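fyi for ur records
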Amino acid sequence: MDVGFLFEHSVERYPDHTALVFEERRWSYRAWHQRVQRCAQALFDLGVGSGDRVALYLQTSEVSVSAYFAVQLLGAVAVPLNYRLAAGEAAHILEDSGSSVLIYDASLCESTRKAQQLARGVREFLCYADAQTDIPAGHLDFETLLESTGDRTEPWPARSASQLSALMYTSGTTGRAKGVMHSHANDVAIAMNCVMEYGLQHQDIALHIAPLYHVGGLQAFFIPHLMVGATNVVLSRYSAASTLAAITQERITTLFAVPTQIRELLLQERLQGIEPWSLRMITTGGAALSAASMARVQRELCTQIYNGYGMTEASLTLLLHPQDALRQLGSCGKPTLISACRILAAAGEVGQLLVQGPQVTCGYWNNPHETAAKIKHGWLYTGDLFSTDEQGFYYFRGRIDDMIVSGGENIYPREVEEVLYRCAGVQQAAVIGLPDAKWGAVVTAFVVREGDLTAESLDRHCRESTELAAFKRPRRFVFLEQLPTNPSGKVLKRQLLADYGPSPDEAATI
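which gave:
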């Protein structure tokens, strides 16, 4: 099985079922397949073959997914780029991946021109634009190319499960972006895992507000729905208002949203009084939700909410099911059906999480040193710190690089954050260690608050907690309007460290 097979199998099984909805247009599986086939043929005519890398520098749209599956049919390798990347960042990925073709959005024309000057290996540029856009000299118009391409009547050459399907570049929160190799076998395993864990059905209608250049939105949400022949509704640009409108208009049944988006949905006035909700399942991850927010989600949005942990190298690995959402709040759940997990520590203690399974990457593109450091004897060394309780639930404690050493004591940020989340008025919290001449590092909490929450009341809450030793208590609180996050919802702690330094003016020190 391969990703192209999953697509064509759903076309064969559900040809007249709505496959894709984007803005005012709708495609059945048969009609969408014809468009994807034509895109694949156009790339083939340009010389793209098995194993060639095709970069996709596109905003979320029908084209972003059509081009992706066209690459899969060819047996080529898709390289989705974050459309928010600067030209230099995009050029690094183009050069590192060895991409020979770039399909880009007209809105990114200027960045593409600059990247072209830095990445000399790309030989063909295809611009997705409307009729009023001037295509740069030497570049091809995507739609014109497809219109002039004939329909393919022969099947595509067979693809192997061991072939690469995509290079998914990391978000770069721990350094420069690296290309994580996804084989077809990896991505089929990810899709099957999510279909089984979430109980996805052919009748489901999924809303996509997460980036489709990221493993969470693409491999772990879009492809699983495609696998069962469900309907995928794609929003070009996320907003809380447009999300609610799409849920009601399209009768959405499944939604993947990061915690920040969920909190924004809960703040919408339109949320009140809308009945009945079509949503049967929400899945989230990447950050924590407070008990108050989780309770509101179950009461006002959807009773079935899943909280997962995953990474580009292994996708969905741990999952907290709805029946445990409040009872085990703060936990990432237990290993998914295809995941084996181990913690490098004694029972109950904090240690690095190791993952094994058919979804785990075979390594990093052009980076054997990093591959050898992260994958040993078939186990992926995640760099994330976890502990487990007596019932086998896993708790994220932070990254190894985030661990705070203060006065010679090891402090795991997540355990401090979990205590903060139990304080009324805390919407979001992130804890880091800021440099300190006396202690080496001082525990600092960055908080997004509701109401008149003060540093003094937060400190009192921490002092009264029975789950936080005195030396772990934050000595400094910084109140922010929002925490910096990457597109997958993970807090950018390195940015907090860079922005606030050793003694931020905004801080209230206890």
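DSSP finds 15 helices and 27 strands in the chain. thats all i got for now
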